[in-house]
Amino acid sequence: MKPRHVPIRMCVVCRQTSEKKTLLRVVRRPEKDGGGLSVDATGRANGRGAYVCASADCIDKAVKQKRFERSLSVPAAPPNLAEALKALCEQPPSEAPLGAAPL
Ligand SMILES: [Zn+2]
Questions:
Q1: Residue 82 alpha carbon to ligand 1 centre in Å
Q2: Cα angle vertex 7, ends 6, 8, to 5°?
Q3: Ligand 1 centroid to 15 CA: how many Å?
Q4: pLDDT value for 103
Q5: DSSP annotation string for 10-69
Q6: What global pTM score does this model have?
Q7: Is 90 helix (H, G, I), strand (E, B) or coil?
Q8: Residue 52 C-alpha to ligand 1 middle, in angstroms?
Q9: DSSP assignment, residue 70?
Q10: Exposed/middle/buried for 52, CB within 10 Å: 0-12, 13-18, 19+?
């Protein structure tokens, strides 16, 4: 049995490291798509990403303190970024596709 590699990422606010799947990802869209930030619900979107804990606390701080703008070098985050991230915390992306048998 090989140990499974678990990707670890760091929250841009509290600097705590966690498994990637427990963090929310914000991605900088490629220039050809207009640039700017998007919330990446799948964790697999192309582009440079930054991560934040799935907690209202860290999300609010990240947005207020412009952590995503700084860490991804974009001039401004979309005004609904905090809302979009919080919506994801309430419904964390499921790893298993619909209909998959539970372990
Ligand atoms: Zn955090």
A1: 14
A2: 115
A3: 6
A4: 57
A5: EBTTT--EEEGGGEEEEEEPPGGGT-SEEEESSS--SS-EEEEESSHHHHHHHHHTTHHH
A6: 0.82
A7: helix
A8: 5
A9: H
A10: buried
Write the CA distances from 65 to 48, 55, 58, 95, integer angstroms.
19, 15, 10, 30
Measure 19 CA to ligand 1 centroid, in angstroms.
12
Residue 8 in tokens? 């670890």
- CA dihedral in degrees (61, 65, 66, 67; nearest 10)? -70
Q: Which residue has the higher pLDDT, 90 or 42?
A: 42
66, two tokens: 């412009």
- Domains of the chain with bracketed CATH: 8-102 (3.30.1230.10)
Instruction: Tell me the two tokens of residue 83.
Output: 């809302």
How high is the pLDDT of residue 94? Answer: 58
